[in-house]
Design a protein that fits this description.
single chain; mainly alpha; 0% strand; globular
């Protein structure tokens, strides 16, 4: 830091920036914009639409005190109650056992261990990854938490989870039972069980903002290694896969990196979800070492997402950063937008040309998506009410009973999160999915504005930014087709839920 502070160039830039902002803040134009902004904000806050969106819904208010929530809380805490009974019965033996104290301590740090779990998922090569590992990891962490609850004041807290989440998972169970092919749906049901446990653990185990920050920091180690390997692939080059890029529209574009994942888009989606959390970690780090590490993760992550050549990933990350900056300080946004636009001509030619191909109907991947949407609407005509059943395997099988697309193939999924959920779970399950998406976004924003702790506000802004980014990608991609990405989505979802809980505890 002393090198930066003593640098003549840095001091000149700082003096220029300070003078420029001083001139702007004292200008007539600034005062007019400020007055206009205040007026728009006042009108917006008083509007009926804002009141309806911002107020706490009847369902959310009633959920913690409802009979359904009470029964669910009772059922989920039976193992914790049993652990407490065992501890009381054998307190001397338990307290004297190094093994029990070790396992109990690990369970008490479940948020940090969940971050370690994410780290493992981030660096596991696709060739050796098995989705069963996700379920085993979630169950193991839950067991450690239950064990720790014997001695410590811990419990499962479904009352801290949005009721929309409970309804969504209820529709998941219904979709399994009513599936056109229950056997094909069963493994997807266990993926959802894994996700539910991740969210429940993040909410139940997080009681201090430091726990959340440490969990994110541990996860960031895995993101750094995955990004570093992606950059390495970009430097040495990977094979060009014709099915992943239009060879005519993207002439001269190198192979797209994928790091430890199966597909470049999968890798980009992970970066979009998690990099904003690392940015939040940078701003909340209290040590120079922590800031340097965060900068290193961010630098390699941004470079890696460039090497993926994922257009949806770039747009998703842009939105995620926009939301983060707007929440932290909206005055920075115009300068950030201007800097982004001015930087476009300086991008590598292959990335610049790829960026310009966004929305190009001559690109086969764009045309293919619209062909998939047409096929999806054909299927929805028969299954819009109750859906085809849980999982993309059932969807793929259902597509084979309809006419093929222009290339003679059938879709394997809808290439859109919202259509996929509707197609699998039916119209009410699709609405439940929309409810958890917008409900969690609303909860995160309310937590950000109500929280007094600066670290909590920054972490919430990062989580909400990443959430907005992945939901934008979901318009053009089915982001849960690769189950590891589904687990990361619900880790991010659980992070927002933990932030909401901490903000409420402040009150």
């Amino acid at each position: 830091m002393s090198i930066v502070e003593n640098s003549l160039i840095c001091r000149l830039i700082l003096a220029f920036w300070t003078g420029l902002t001083g001139l702007w803040e004292g200008s007539w134009l600034h005062s007019r914009f400020a007055a206009l902004g205040q007026e728009i904000r006042k009108k917006g806050e008083e509007s009926l639409l804002c009141t309806l969106i911002w107020r706490e819904g009847t369902l959310e208010r009633a959920w913690p005190r409802s009979v359904s929530c009470g029964l669910l809380t009772l059922l989920l805490n039976i193992p914790c109650a049993l652990a407490k009974w065992i501890y009381k019965a054998g307190k001397k033996w338990w307290d004297g056992s190094f093994f029990c104290r070790l396992i109990g301590g690990m369970g008490g740090a479940a948020t940090i261990l969940t971050g370690l779990f994410m780290l493992g998922m981030l660096i596991a090569p696709h060739e050796i990854w098995n989705n069963v590992y996700g379920l085993l990891g979630a169950v193991t962490l839950t067991a450690l938490f239950v064990f720790a609850s014997g001695k410590h004041p811990l419990r499962m807290e479904p009352d801290r989870v949005s009721p929309h989440v409970i309804f969504f998972f209820a529709f998941v169970a219904i979709a399994l039972a009513s599936s056109l092919a229950t056997r094909l749906s069963l493994r997807f049901f266990f993926f959802h069980v894994t996700c539910f446990l991740i969210v429940l653990l993040m909410v139940s185990a997080t009681n201090r903002v430091e726990q959340l920050r440490y969990g994110v920091a541990v996860m960031s180690g895995g993101l750094f290694l995955a990004s570093l390997y992606g950059c390495y692939q970009g430097l040495i080059g990977v094979d060009v896969v014709a099915s992943q890029q239009d060879m005519k529209v993207n002439v001269g574009m190198p192979g797209r990196v994928y790091s430890f994942f199966d597909n470049p888009n999968n890798f980009a989606e992970v970066l979009v979800m998690l990099l904003p959390l690392v940015l939040a970690l940078l701003l909340t780090s209290k040590t120079l070492r922590g800031r340097l590490f965060s900068l290193l993760v961010l630098g390699t992550g941004v470079a890696a997402i460039g090497y993926t050549y994922s257009r949806s990933g770039w747009l998703g990350l842009a939105l995620a950063l926009f939301v983060f900056l707007a929440l932290q300080n909206w005055k920075i946004v115009p300068f950030a937008l201007a800097a982004g636009i001015l930087a476009l001509p300086f991008l590598p030619e292959s990335i610049y040309n790829r960026f310009l191909s966004i929305g190009n109907m001559k690109d086969t991947s764009t045309r293919y998506r619209f062909a998939i949407y047409d096929a999806t609407w054909n299927l929805m005509g028969d299954h819009w009410a109750k859906g085809v059943g849980l999982g993309s395997d059932v969807m793929k099988k259902a597509f084979t009973t309809y006419p093929t697309m222009f290339d003679g193939n059938h879709p394997i999924h809808t290439h859109n999160n919202y259509l996929q959920m509707w197609g699998e779970l039916g119209i009410f399950g699709g609405l439940a999915y929309l409810a958890i998406v917008f409900g969690q976004l609303k909860g995160g924003l309310k937590a950000f504005y109500s929280a007094k702790n600066k670290e909590l506000r920054t972490l919430t802004a990062g989580a909400v930014g990443g959430f907005c980014g992945i939901m934008l990608i979901g318009v053009a991609e089915y982001t849960w087709f690769y189950p590891r990405n589904m687990f990361f989505f619900w880790f991010l979802f659980g992070t927002i839920a933990a932030c909401v809980k901490l903000a409420k505890l402040e009150k």
